[in-house]
Prior knowledge:
CATH class of chain A: Mainly Beta
Oligomer: heterodimer
Shape of chain A: globular
Number of domains of chain B: 1
Distance between the termini of chain B: 37 Å
Amino acid sequence: MDGTCCGPGYASPAEAIKAPREKLLYTIAIYTGTGIQKPDYLATVDVDPDSPTYSQVIHRLEMPGIGDELHHMGWNACSSCHDDSSMARKYLILPGVRSNNLHIVDTATDPRAPRLHKVIDGAEIKSKANLSGPHTVHCLGSEIIISFLGDAMGEAPGGYLHLSKDFEIVGRWEESMGDIKFGYDFWYQPRHNVMVSSEWASPNTFMPGFDLEEVGHLKYGRELHFWDFEARKPVESMYLGEDGLIPLEVKFHHDPDSTHGFCGAALSSNVIHFWKSDAGNWEWEKIIDVENEPHPEWPIPVPGVMSAILVSMDDKFLYLNNWLHGDMRQYNIEDPHNPVLTGQVFMGGLLGKAPVINGVEMAGGPQMFQLSLDGRRLYVTTSLFSTWDNQFYPEIRERGGVMVMIDCDPVNGGMSINEEFIVNFGTEPNGPSRCHESRYPGGDCTSDIWL
Amino acid sequence: MSKTRTITIANRGGATYEVDARRPLLDTLTEQGLDLPYGCKYGGCITCAAKLTDGQIDQRRQVALNNRQLGNGYVLMCVARAVTDCTFEIGVESHDRLYRNPFLDPLQPHELKADIATPKDT
């Protein structure tokens, strides 16, 4: 905190890096699609090494019903309203991708035991905004916008739901979707009046699982879209072609003055770098290309499936996963045109390089991850999405998901699996569940944006 | 013709349920206490899939199953209605052929979803 105000978050990325170490972490865990007839839940994980319950789930907040498929989540407020003393980072918003419900969870009253504050019914969102398939949540000053990947019938491109700070439906956020074919993730950089959005597929395409054949039938995305953020309209689209099949996660630098950003193209397993040139044009290039790997039983080589990327708070390192190969990688991106591989570890995956981590037999590969604000601890989970898990890693039904911690060197680069920490969701009280996205109470490397 | 159909659940000891033929099976069966999985409730995901082993259903509203899954008997209970008396296997035990690794076991053109499938070569 800079002491001049008392809104949420931090005055700058540099201030965020100096924040106290995280002691709690929230991750969603699903039973949807697992065969266990229990609600999905928000797990609180103790990440304080001085605590007797370190590396354990210490609380589980069940959703009211089954079948939500919790996936990503986001805060009601972040550093974008650091100057607004009337705001607080109190609520975590947990969308159900399949049910369309939005769960508003109070994490502030008792951070160890979050409680359900409100549910916005999925049917109400369909009737008022004609949207389904919620994904990314970003706050926007005191307001909240959420990308939805389909209309009420699950057809692309969907749009953006606008919520007030009191979690009332305002309506659609965007003025127009232009010619955008699909939705997925988005990030914005207000000082440059830009938002960038990416493309997965329509809910009716991705929810049942991955039919590779549908990629060739243009049922999956391959474009990035640049928006006039204030006008709420897309103004330019970039066709990435074979280099950018299924462009998923989009991150700008945390530095609000920077125009550099990155996107991980999951199926191509490439990192796309974009930036505004000196002439004022948006440019893109492929900067990382993960080669497909041979597999003893597969007729065609295995793609990495880079489903997530993350930029450290100091903008020095980019982290990525290869869910099918089983590796997490760290690249130095101080020169964003020329990334340098500085770390790599394996955990699970289909190539058989690390089947057991800290005594736990892995199912799945590295999937979602969250980095500590100081850049030293990377928490990685293994489940992607219930139907896709069931296709590629059917053994995850019996074994459940796992959370692993990777120690990262934010000065010289380097990664190693921490041998003291592992959370095995295979031994949960109601049976094996699957963990996905994680967040810290104080804000994290994938939530905060500076105005 | 009567508006009631008899539904038999083979992998629940052959339990039977009388259901209204005009309503989705997920609704009529869960109302009678059968514990069934579900997700989207509009036929757009396959969380509620069950396997039909005998009888006929109408699931024209579903948009998630590809033609191979349909050929293997999968039914989305959230939108399907019973045309005749039917027998199902439910839950994950019935999902042996629902999921496939697309890299190991490609779909043929006629096995794709209805909107992009091409007729089978004869």
